[in-house]
Amino acid sequence: MLPFIDLQPVTQLVAGAARAAWDGVLERCEFVGGAGVQQLERTIAAYCGAPHAVACASGTDALVLALQAAGVTPGMHVALPNLTFWATFEAVAQLGAIPVLIDISPDDLQLDLDELRRAHETYRFGHAIVVHLYGWASNALRALRTFCREHEVCLIEDAAQAAGVELDGAPLLADAAVATLSFYPAKVIGGCMDGGAVMTGDAALAQRVRSLGNHGRATHYSYHHVGWSSRMAGLQAHYLLAVMQHADQIVADRRRLVAAYRAQLGGLAATLHGPGPGITENGYLLVLACDAPAEPIAAAFRARGIAVARTYPETIDAQAPARGRFVAVSALARSRAHVERVLNLPLYYGLPAHDLAAIVSAAREIVV
């Protein structure tokens, strides 16, 4: 079976450096926090163009910490897209807030700005999450940021899938008020375990995030907040530092593979989605919207020994725990229709050329 994703090419790339760094971690007992985490925070901040980065234990924790540090409390409304990973909704719900689900734009599959405006007229929310889904970003991102600033909406940018994405040649998150990353191993910049980070230009907010992720501490045994235990491990930080040494190489290879797919997959019975003008994707996912329901097409690939994915096969509003816990200003029809037809072909750093050729050949025979 050709895999949908293979982590071995990256782990082999960094194994020597990671093992050497881990020897030092064991000698110093640098298990939770420490110099490696601090260095990683500086490295990630510079890579993303952000003044401050605070590492934490997962991408989900990063969302929870960012939302709480930004002032989200129980009963508040928080807008977020109906097409995203469950953690985006989960983080809002865990804080006792009320998700306001927003449909997607048919052009770029990202949160629809016009619907966000309508939802704000109804619910007057003070916080919103935009998810940079699939390894690119909204064509309307600048307008979205402007709308939120003008209406005093704190915009949290969930960039779990967007490390390395660029907007007009600069890091996507350089102008973000608050943003979060995930270092789950399958991400473009993936670690050896769960991990995440919050980035911001607001030094006070960064300090709140740091406190909240360490039990709300003010000093070792005094507390400013009721917080969480969300500290990054030293082993993870040093592994990620090894990966970051190759970040440009990893992203460049994934972009090359996406370009090769796009050049060879014309004429399929599907729409091949991608970024709009000014946005440079990171090669996280190749996204097809098939003209027919995608699950039988996915099964045909699997029958030929090719693992494919469907990211995501269901919307947030379709999840059982979401029922009765959200509001919306539309029927969310576009996101519901898209998930029936979405299909993702294998894409990862180091994907062999002969595997790419086999996948393209199969796609030409199956997606017709």
Mind explaining what this structure looks like?
- This protein has 368 residues and is α/β, with parallel strands linked by helices.
- It folds into two domains: 237 residues, 3-Layer(aba) Sandwich (Aspartate Aminotransferase, domain 2); 120 residues, Alpha-Beta Complex (Aspartate Aminotransferase, domain 1), CATH 3.90.1150.
- 40% of the residues lie in helices and 16% in strands.
- It contains twelve helices and 16 strands.
- The strands form four sheets. The protein has an eight-stranded mixed sheet with strand order 1-9-8-5-4-2-3-15, with helices on both faces.
- Helix 1 crosses helix 8, helix 2 runs parallel beside helix 8 and helix 3 crosses helix 4.
- The longest helix is centred in the first third of the chain and has 21 residues.
- The chain is globular.
- The chain starts with 7 loop residues before the first helix and ends with a helix.
CATH fold-level name of the largest domain: Aspartate Aminotransferase, domain 2
CATH superfamily of the largest domain: Type I PLP-dependent aspartate aminotransferase-like (Major domain)
Counting DSSP E segments of at least 2 residues, the number of strands comes to 16
What's the story with the biggest beta sheet?
8 strands, mixed
Gap between N and C termini: 22 Å
Spans with pLDDT under 50 lasting ≥5 residues? none
Round the Cα radius of gyration to an integer and report it: 20 Å
The CATH class of the largest domain: Alpha Beta
Counted up, domains total: 2
Q: What's the mean pLDDT score?
A: 97
The assigned structural class equals alpha/beta
Q: What's the overall geometry?
A: globular
Overall helicity: 40-55%
